[in-house]
Amino acid sequence: MVNNFDVVIIGAGAAGMMCAAQAGQRGRRVLLIDHAAKIGERIRISGGGRCNFTNLDVSADNFLSQNPHFARSALSQYSQHDFIKLVARYGIKYHEKTLGQLFCDDSAQQIIAMLRAECDVGGVRWAQPCQITAVAMTADGYQIITDDKTYICASLVIATGGLAIPQLGATPFGYKIAEQFGIPVIAPQPALVPLALDTDSLSALQTLSGTSLAVASTCAGQKAVFLESLLITHKGLSGPAVLQISSYWQNQLYGAGKKQPIHINLLPQLDIAAWLNAHRYSKSLLSHLLAEHLPKRFAQEWCALHGWDKPLIEHGNKDISQMINLLSAWTLMPAGTLGYAKAEVTLGGVDTQALSSKTMAVKKQPNLYFIGEVVDVTGWLGGYNFQWAWSSGWVAGQVV
Length: 400
Known about the structure:
Blueprint lengths: L1 E9 L3 H12 L4 E4 L7 H5 L6 E4 L7 E2 L6 H7 L2 H10 L4 E3 L4 E4 L4 H13 L3 E3 L4 E6 L4 E5 L3 E9 L14 H8 L4 E7 L3 E2 L2 H7 L6 E8 L6 E7 L3 E3 L1 H12 L10 E4 L6 H7 L7 H5 L5 H10 L11 H12 L1 E3 L3 E2 L7 E6 L17 E3 L7 E2 L4 H14 L3
Parallel strand pairs: 1-2, 1-10, 2-7, 10-20
Antiparallel strand pairs: 3-6, 4-21, 5-6, 8-9, 9-10, 11-19, 12-15, 12-18, 13-14, 13-16, 14-15, 16-17
Helix pairs in contact: 1-5, 1-13, 3-13, 9-12
């Protein structure tokens, strides 16, 4: 049995549903295919079940890509404010948590239901769960062969996401389609992911596992600085400050190919040199002074780790200088990441040089589009990756 459509979209996640709804509401005959039995699982689990669906402050600067300007067009055509209006139109209550991050008051299921309703308005048809066995180009478009049907379409959109969270069904399908049609793919890597430490570093920090503190994280050679919380775990480092900088640490392979250490400012709220010099002749231990700004257990163990166990007045200038340097930039070299199972998103993907930034269309392959996480555009933590899904899906939906 052959079914003919104007548009077939493979992948019923955030980008896929947005694209399908837009195309359908333009009067296009749309089929949305997904291999999973449940749609929007990544949406459902996001934000602790409340979906951090966008951010109040979004620009291309919040994204990593080999082409840092690529996201600019889609984000300007369909902004965070446009999506917020859609959310409000459906009566979904939301709140700002921190740093412009917007969450549903109730449940992420509301966002899924909204997208499904938008697809219904556009008369979108669904095929799920549906396993695709082959995709081929035809004289008039594309042929998609599944386990029980064959579909024909004029335009094909790939919205199958990346490799993050394989337990929810992530696959390399989108990359394979790109390679099939000769479209280059930037090697995928886990992003927004906890970082592992080597055995020696872990041993030194073992007593601090479970400790959380507010820091500023940076990565050598990168301008980005993240003022967020860090969590020391039994495997290494986690928390928003680490998830954020992990993307930049991974991204270093795009450049010289040699990873650099990460730096942690333990007292970002202070002028550390001025603060420490003000206590230069104090009879207090550094750990006691640090405990006014950091968790007491961390202050004690961290000072013990560096052998700073006597009053400050008894430390020489060399020690004081080292204290300032390490408090300002505690340097750690990650041994790796905890992988896709713990990653929020995927870094890398379909090379943006092969795509139109205005439409997400492949430049040299007619009527083929890639949207969302499968593309080499990776956002910060905080709703940015969902906004990329909405924006890239929306612009493709206007032209397919």
